[in-house]
Design a protein that fits this description.
By secondary structure, the protein is an alpha+beta fold. 37% of the residues lie in helices and 18% in strands. It has 6 helices and 4 strands; from the N terminus they run H-H-E-H-H-E-H-H-E-E. A 4-stranded mixed beta sheet has the order 1-3-4-2. Helix 2 runs parallel beside helix 5 and helix 3 packs across helix 4. It is globular.
Length: 170
């Protein structure tokens, strides 16, 4: 299972949707905002690109959270295993976002989730999310303070992405 987590990669390709234009790669993320070496480069880049989008609008950057990260990785792996992009996966071990959040042990006052599949890298994925009103709202939501990212590859090669956003219940 850990090997699958390390390979976590995913993308959102919907019939009739235009492909996003590539976004130039940003400088590497700093180690003080991201977890250790077990985090894949694409996961680091997604978090960095999302934080760049937040900074463009004057928002605080999101902090990495291990529990949200666990929930995101679970969903990426579940989507890759079922080869289905969805927020809810009936029949999966943790079918809904609240199931994953509860399992990860995150006490929240706010949670949200972005999913995608089929994109080749972080830049395409984040660009697509920014072109989607719902995903863009999640990225730019002032109520979110923390995040986690998961990317998984299906046996057939497609990449599945999940980013979970949240704020703790204090």
């Amino acid at each position: 299972m850990r090997a699958v987590h390390v390979l976590l990669l995913a993308t959102l390709l919907s019939a009739g949707c235009a492909s996003p234009k590539p976004v130039p790669s940003p400088p590497p993320a700093t180690s003080d905002t991201l977890p250790g070496s077990s985090y894949t480069q694409i996961e680091r880049e997604i978090m960095h690109l999302v934080n760049l989008e937040r900074m463009k609008t004057g928002l605080d950057t999101l902090r990495w959270n291990a529990q949200l990260d666990k929930a995101a990785k679970i969903q990426a792996v579940q989507m890759a295993a079922q080869r289905k992009m969805a927020h809810d996966l009936p029949g999966a071990g943790y079918p809904g976002l609240k199931d994953r959040i509860r399992y990860a042990g995150y006490s929240y006052r706010h949670i949200a989730e972005n999913v995608a599949f089929g994109y080749p890298d972080a830049a395409y994925t984040v660009a697509a999310w920014m072109k989607s009103s719902g995903h863009r709202l999640n990225i730019l939501d002032r109520a979110s303070a923390e995040t986690g990212v998961g990317v998984a590859r299906a046996k057939t090669g497609e990449l599945y992405y999940c980013q979970v956003f949240g704020s703790r219940l204090y």
